[in-house]
Design a protein that fits this description.
The protein is mainly alpha-helical and 247 residues long. It has six helices and no strands.
């Protein structure tokens, strides 16, 4: 007689309580980024069975932590904006100092050229003045020398001050000193932007590390450095406070 075929055996169907227990164990071993999915899966598979209080509290805790990370991301984005503003301020200060330094040098060179020309006219005027003291000088010659001397004196006065064109020695010296003042102001601003940029960059690094390591002390340190960097950046624009070891 042919042997009887054994009937297939099936493993017992797991209960809802067993499914919930296994899902909870997997959830505890899973990283935080997958816990929301596991919570949702547990709700779908155990519909009709109530969740434990610990599951609900873990869910709320995870949501709170993810919300905090979003705020840290917004904070880092704000630091990036401040870094951009600080970079613009530092770049403008460096460009202003270079530009005004070149303009001041050119103005002083123009001043020196005017001074040399004025000196040559003064020497010529002194020579003409000496000729006028010669005895027996014809009247026509004396008159010509006096006219020439008057022209030289007028040119000497014009080289000393020329308000109409603003190219006299007096106007050029004032313009050069003004440019030097702008240059010095830009040079005083630049270090504040340098220190502010460094502090803001360190603040970004600490904020990023606080997310990865979950260390809130790093975030507190980041905020303190960011505040200090922000104040230094404002002082770079306004120069409200003179800090000797920075300026």
């Amino acid at each position: 007689m042919p042997a009887e075929r054994a009937s297939p055996t099936f493993p017992p169907r797991p209960s809802l309580h067993g499914i919930a227990s296994r899902a909870k164990r997997v959830r505890l071993r899973a990283p935080r980024s997958r816990r929301f999915f596991l919570h949702g899966s547990l709700l779908k598979r155990s519909r009709g069975a109530g969740m434990e209080t610990s599951d609900i509290s873990d869910h709320l805790k995870d949501a709170h932590e993810h919300g905090a990370e979003k705020w840290v991301a917004i904070y880092i984005a704000l630091l990036a904006v401040l870094l951009s503003v600080c970079s613009i301020g530092g770049g403008n200060a460096a460009k202003d100092s270079t530009r005004t330094n070149i303009q001041a040098s050119d103005t002083w060179a123009f001043y020196q050229a005017k001074n040399m020309r004025q000196t040559s006219y003064k020497l010529a005027a002194e020579a003409l003045q000496l000729r006028l003291t010669e005895p027996g000088l014809p009247e026509a010659t004396r008159k010509a020398i006096e006219e020439k001397l008057a022209a030289h004196n007028a040119e000497i006065a014009r080289l000393e001050s020329d308000p109409a064109k603003g190219e006299g020695k007096k106007e050029l010296a004032a313009k050069a000193k003004e440019l030097e003042g702008v240059r010095d102001t830009a040079l005083n601003r630049d270090p504040y932007f340098d220190y502010a940029g460094a502090l803001l960059q360190i603040a970004v690094v600490l904020a990023s590390a606080s997310i990865v390591l979950g260390n809130r002390l790093l975030l507190v340190g980041s905020k303190l450095l960011a505040l200090l960097g922000f104040l230094l950046m404002l002082n770079g624009f306004t120069l409200a406070v003179n800090i000797p070891f920075i300026a």
